[in-house]
Amino acid sequence: MSDGELRVRRLDPRAQLPSRAHDGDAGYDLRALDAGTLAPGERMLVRTGIAIALPRGHAGLVLPRSGTAVRHGIALVNAPGLVDEGYRGELQVLLLNTDRVAAWSWEAGDRIAQLVVTRPALPEVVETTELDDTARGAGGFGSSGLR
């Protein structure tokens, strides 16, 4: 594998290793260590029971699962969650139930998020007094319109 290896340490014997459902999938499923329930509007830090060592020069992005989001309104508060190459603590997922009425429950071992391993660009930071002009300019939030 040209991208090295993703080393995983189980911090709890019940923890499950990250896995991909299909060969071409970019994300590794992360699973909940324990069962739990999120009340409407509640957020919770959910344990995975694993720690990882990313390949040199890589970072991890913890992302929501699209099916859980569309069916139950479950989001990640800090999506994407950034895992730096040198981080060795437990991967935890900060879930948020955006549903205003229904609670959402999961069992131990359920897939709660996904981890994408990527190689970030790390350009040198250079201070300048001017920036090149572009067609967009300083237009930000909503500046490109609805259509």
Automatic annotation (TrEMBL):
It comes from Paraconexibacter algicola. This enzyme is involved in nucleotide metabolism: it produces dUMP, the immediate precursor of thymidine nucleotides and it decreases the intracellular concentration of dUTP so that uracil cannot be incorporated into DNA. Its cofactor is Mg(2+). Keywords: Hydrolase, Magnesium, Metal-binding, Nucleotide metabolism. This is Deoxyuridine 5'-triphosphate nucleotidohydrolase. It catalyses: dUTP + H2O = dUMP + diphosphate + H(+). The lineage of its organism: Bacteria, Bacillati, Actinomycetota, Thermoleophilia, Solirubrobacterales. GO terms for molecular function: dUTP diphosphatase activity; magnesium ion binding. Residues 15-145 form the dUTPase-like domain. Belongs to the dUTPase family. It is an enzyme of class 3 (hydrolase). NCBIfam families: dut, PRK00601.1. InterPro entries: dUTPase (IPR008181), dUTPase-like (IPR029054), dUTPase-like_sf (IPR036157), dUTPase_trimeric (IPR033704).
